[in-house]
Amino acid sequence: xxxxxxxxxxxxxxxxxxxxxxxxxxxxxxxxxxxxxxxxxxxxxxxxxxxxxxxxxxxxxxxxxxxxxxxxxxxxxxxxxxxxxxxxxxxxxxxxxxxxxxxxxxxxxxxxxxxxxxxxxxxxxxxxxxxxxxxxxxxxxxxxxxxxxxxxxxxxxxxxxxxxxxxxxxxxxxxxxxxxxxxxxxxxxxx
Length: 191
Ligand SMILES: [Zn+2]
Description:
Bound molecules: zinc ion
Strand content: 15-25%
Oligomer: single chain
Mean pLDDT: 88
């Protein structure tokens, strides 16, 4: 008897993972510049039209989260303040500021990687995307490439703690001394 064909992921799952890996590349860019590594990409009709990574320290801009950077780029490119055909992929659960910006832009769908138990606004602390009191809702897919997204943040905070404890350490960067280690720190997964 012929063996059944191997189970494959649904096409959407595969696409989601591929786009999340591109968002992870963006997060690496943030780390290279000494920022908390969070990255985002915006996809329209299966094509990446905008990218962003977290850069509040370098830009002296507390709103320069990965989602906002990508959102501004996409809106400028499309010449529209509303982006209802777009999907945003981000490596960390959006905060309340980014969630509201995405709702204002009328995004249909948001996909994120790691949960943020301290400031996540897609179910961890609050769920703004599904709040019945708000007039727009957004389809959310959580924990795509979750392990890789969490590991990147954990590695970053581990290196940051080391650098803050040892000012002579090669990884020490004066700009990092202002980062609150607990701000986006992710608890290690329970194994
Ligand atoms: Zn944010």
